[in-house]
């Protein structure tokens, strides 16, 4: 398992307001992120675990699942976590024309705004696939693409006993944005073991900071 991919190191060379891979390490913070929810079975379990350990996280939600499970999204927000945009239907953005990519993003931002009141959210492209035109669009719009610096590989669906030693042998460090998925049992099992370990090691587990609104939005223009 290679938690730090070459791709995320290369993306990390871009300005962090445009592409965030890792964040400042001060305060021994770990930034925990979950993709592909909300899931009616597994997301509540993840929320229970986070609550038990005083941890916060970012949930990159798939729009059409968010509107199907509004109660779970309300709980995510009510418990102090952040919600982010993971597209409407989880397509590979590289397989769509730009207009459809933007429709996937805008429709999801609108749906998420009903829960957290924010017009725009951090966007994480499904599977990290990033067409160059979409990157340019985000640069023009001064929007942020939220990547990660530490891939837990929890989507490999290894049993927790197999995944845990891999993560422990090359663990995340302060400032890492950790990629996980709240749509499977293995992740919750791994998390139940890792959260108390990280707390003992002095890490503060947090959500990624919200994007800074553009001036026009602040002024209500
Ligand atoms: Zn995904």
Task: Describe what you observe in this structure.
- This protein is α/β, with parallel strands linked by helices.
- The protein contains 9 helices and 8 strands.
- It has helices at residues 6-11, 42-52, 63-68, 70-78, 98-116, 132-141, 160-169, 185-200, 215-218; strands spanning 19-20, 29-37, 58-61, 82-85, 145-146, 150-151, 177-181, 204-206.
- The strands form 2 sheets. Strands 2, 3, 4, 6, 7 and 8 form a 6-stranded parallel beta sheet that branches. Strands 1-5 form a two-stranded parallel ribbon.
- Strand 2, helix 2 (42-52) and strand 3 form a beta-alpha-beta unit.
- Helix 2 packs parallel to helix 8 and helix 7 packs parallel to helix 8 (185-200).
- Residues 35-36, 86, 90, 126 line the site of zinc ion.
Which secondary structure elements does this structure contain, and how are they paired or packed?
Layout: H1 6-11, E1 19-20, E2 29-37, H2 42-52, E3 58-61, H3 63-68, H4 70-78, E4 82-85, H5 98-116, H6 132-141, E5 145-146, E6 150-151, H7 160-169, E7 177-181, H8 185-200, E8 204-206, H9 215-218
Parallel strand pairs: 1-5, 2-3, 2-7, 2-8, 3-4, 6-7
Helix pairs in contact: 2-8, 7-8
Bound molecules: zinc ion.
Zinc ion (ZN) binds next to strand 2.
């Amino acid at each position: 398992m290679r938690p730090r991919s070459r791709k995320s190191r290369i993306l990390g060379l871009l300005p962090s307001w445009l592409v965030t891979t890792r964040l400042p390490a001060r305060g021994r913070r770990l930034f925990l992120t979950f993709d592909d929810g909300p899931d009616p079975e597994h997301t509540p379990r993840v929320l229970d675990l986070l609550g038990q350990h005083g941890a916060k996280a970012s949930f990159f939600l798939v729009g059409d699942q968010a509107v199907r499970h509004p109660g779970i999204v309300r709980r995510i927000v009510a418990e102090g976590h952040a919600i982010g945009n993971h597209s409407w239907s989880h397509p590979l953005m590289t397989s769509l024309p730009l207009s459809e990519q933007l429709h996937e993003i805008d429709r999801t931002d609108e749906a998420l705004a009903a829960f957290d009141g924010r017009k725009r959210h951090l966007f994480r492209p499904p599977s990290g696939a990033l067409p160059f035109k979409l990157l340019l669009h985000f640069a023009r719009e001064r929007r942020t693409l939220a990547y990660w610096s530490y891939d837990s590989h929890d989507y490999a669906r290894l049993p927790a006993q197999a995944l845990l030693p891999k993560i422990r042998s090359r663990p995340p460090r302060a400032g890492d944005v950790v990629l996980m998925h709240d749509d499977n049992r293995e992740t919750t099992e791994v998390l139940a073991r890792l959260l108390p370990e990280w707390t003992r090691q002095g890490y503060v587990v947090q959500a990624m900071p919200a994007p800074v609104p553009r001036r026009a939005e602040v002024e209500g223009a």
